[in-house]
Design goal:
alpha/beta; Peroxisomal Thiolase, Chain A, domain 1; 3-stranded mixed beta sheet; 24% strand; globular
């Protein structure tokens, strides 16, 4: 049995509301909130970036897994807001966590699905007996140009999964598959501070097509139906998109509920699907089944079928820090001026180096 031994989530305590952003731009806050189903988003502090958040999430995951960092054979970090243009996040996170030097490290980038790509690679290495345990991280300070619709949702956060095998597995990864296409829905050129997107084109031709295609492929692969799952987790660019694909695929609002944290969090890009998975795992009981489907613009998806085990209760008891939903409740609101200062200092999505 190979799967998740421990998971960790980190969200900065700072928030800005949709209403505060809309007020600054003279927009209708109520209409935007209803349109996106996002009420507020997380904002990184002046000392927080994709590395520091990845370290926090990694520490929490290792603690839950009860694994010494030096036992890890690999660390993969997925992000589209790397701290340096040329210098890996993964090695800095690995050093901070105490992995030593005998491990495989790499940075991954596939827009918002880089975190699940890391998860997929670590699981495959464990299944192939190349390593015993590894760490997959998704961490981003998401980019959104001031005044653009992305500004209302582009958020900050990180999630980490310790993946290995044995009796400590709290959620077995039963199967996975991926889809990919050249779909120009969202991009950022090398020297641009903020991304460009094609508005509504990001919905049906990109997000919906890839998630539906990948989810159906996995269900066919394992001969399963939507009703076979207790929880379903989709990438959350906003609150409306995951509700839409859940309906298209035949899942209910009840199945979506446990991992549906986007209205109070926003879109944390590479961390988004994994943070939603953390929220679902916080509520899942032993023997329950979870479908996870990520999405990355450009465009593609990774799908996973997971089944929780009796080890999940013991693992959650080892956690000393707050759950994801507790972190979301512990917050400090920013006015737009303070938020804008943090953008100008490079804290939201501007690549350094």
């Amino acid at each position: 049995m190979a799967g998740i031994l421990g998971y960790g989530a980190y969200v900065p305590r700072y928030r800005i509301t949709t209403a505060e952003i809309a007020k600054h731009h003279g927009k209708d806050a109520a209409a935007i909130s209803v349109g996106l189903l996002v009420n507020e988003k997380s904002v990184p502090g002046l000392d927080e970036d994709s590395i520091t958040m990845g370290v926090e999430a990694g520490l929490a995951a290792l603690q839950m897994a009860n694994v010494d960092a030096k036992q890890l054979g690999a660390l993969y970090s997925g992000s589209e807001s790397k701290v340096y243009a040329v210098k890996p996040n993964s090695t800095m996170i690995g050093t901070a966590l105490g992995l030593g030097e005998l491990y495989h490290a790499a940075d991954l980038e596939f827009a918002c699905k880089a975190g699940t790509a890391a998860m997929q690679i670590v699981w495959a290495m464990v299944k192939a007996n190349l390593i015993k345990t590894g760490l997959a991280i998704g961490s981003d300070t998401a980019q959104g140009r001031p005044g653009d619709v992305l500004e209302y949702s582009a958020a900050a956060g990180a999630s980490a999964l310790v993946i290995g095998e044995g009796v400590g597995v709290l959620a077995e990864i039963e199967a996975t598959c991926s889809s990919a296409s050249d779909t120009p829905d969202f991009w950022r050129r090398t020297k641009d501070d903020f991304p460009t997107h094609l508005g509504k084109f990001t919905a049906a031709p990109a997000y919906e097509k890839q998630i539906v295609t990948c989810a159906k492929a996995l269900l066919t692969k394992i001969d399963a139906k939507p009703e076979d799952f207790d929880h379903v987790v989709f990438h959350t660019p906003n609150g409306k998109f995951p509700q839409r694909v859940a309906k298209l695929l035949g899942f209910t609002a009840q199945q979506l509920a446990a991992g549906y944290v986007v209205p109070e969090l926003g879109n944390t890009y590479s961390a988004a699907a994994l943070l939603a998975l953390c929220a679902a795992l916080d509520q899942a009981k032993a023997g329950e089944r979870i479908l996870l489907v990520s999405f990355g613009s450009g465009a593609g998806s990774d799908a996973f079928s997971l089944r929780t085990t009796k080890a999940i209760e013991r693992a959650r008891q080892r956690r000393l820090g707050p759950t994801l939903r507790q972190q979301l409740a512990h917050k400090i609101y920013l006015d737009y001026g303070t938020y804008l200062q943090q953008i100008s200092k490079g804290q939201i999505g501007i690549t350094h180096g």
